[in-house]
Amino acid sequence: MADGFSPADKPLYFVTDHNLTAGRAQLEVIEAALSGGVRWVQYRDKDLPDAGFEREAKAALDLCRKHGALLLINDRVAIAKAIGAHGVHLGQDDMDPEEARRVLGPQAVIGISTHNREEVLAAENQPVDYINIGPMFPTATKDHSRYGALGPDLVLELSRLSRHPFTTMGGIKKSHLRDLFSRGVKTVAMVTEISLAPDPAARTRELLAEIQPPA
């Protein structure tokens, strides 16, 4: 398991989607989010073939290193290994976490998506560093289209079943942040709140200000 890794140290987790960039290049949006203060990025693209995915993911990793940020690769464990990414995020239908751990080694960060009690409990016996519980709210993002929204009460209830730290995503907007963090959420993952913003760097700063308001 990754030594010293804590999702709570990175309260805002940016998940990419090349279909949701307001016409901009994916790397342009990633760099803007990093400039705004994001320190955890998940590079996700369900459509690119491996060669193109690896090329862009490597460029994203270079940007993350420049900003002292963490880069996880969605699903494609072999590419994460090849480029030296910090780890992977796995869905329920992706590579088994045991196999991903064998491929990536003990220092890699491995996360897995969970959507219900059964999946949260199953993750207890898996070599993962965190679980994502969601979707929090209704969302059209591809990852979550087949699952119903859980809502804050159920997300927090499920989180208490797990020994793993948790993140949450799905339909979360700026207006939700203060309430969610006051109730015990430590890290939220966001896509469109950042990627579709007219100025992703400024939007990221606004989101972090909601999460960590000035004293």
Topology:
Layout lengths: L11 E4 L10 H11 L3 E4 L6 H17 L3 E5 L2 H7 L3 E4 L6 H8 L4 E6 L2 H6 L7 E4 L17 H9 L6 E4 L7 H6 L5 E3 L1 H4 L4 H12 L4
Parallel strand pairs: 1-2, 1-8, 2-3, 3-4, 4-5, 5-6, 6-7, 7-8
What does this structure look like?
43% of the residues are buried. Helix 1 runs parallel beside helix 2 (50-66) and helix 2 crosses helix 3 (77-83). The chain is α/β, with parallel strands linked by helices. The protein is 37% helix and 16% strand. It has an eight-stranded parallel barrel with strand order 1-2-3-4-5-6-7-8, surrounded by six helices. The chain starts with 11 loop residues before the first strand and ends with a helix. The chain is built from nine helices and eight strands. The chain has a single domain, classed as Aldolase class I (TIM Barrel).
Brief account:
The chain is of the alpha/beta class. It has helices at about 25-35, 50-65, 75-85, 95-105, 115-120, 150-160, 175-180, 190-195, 200-210; strands spanning about 10-15, 40-45, 70-75, 85-90, 110-115, 130-135, 165-170, 190.
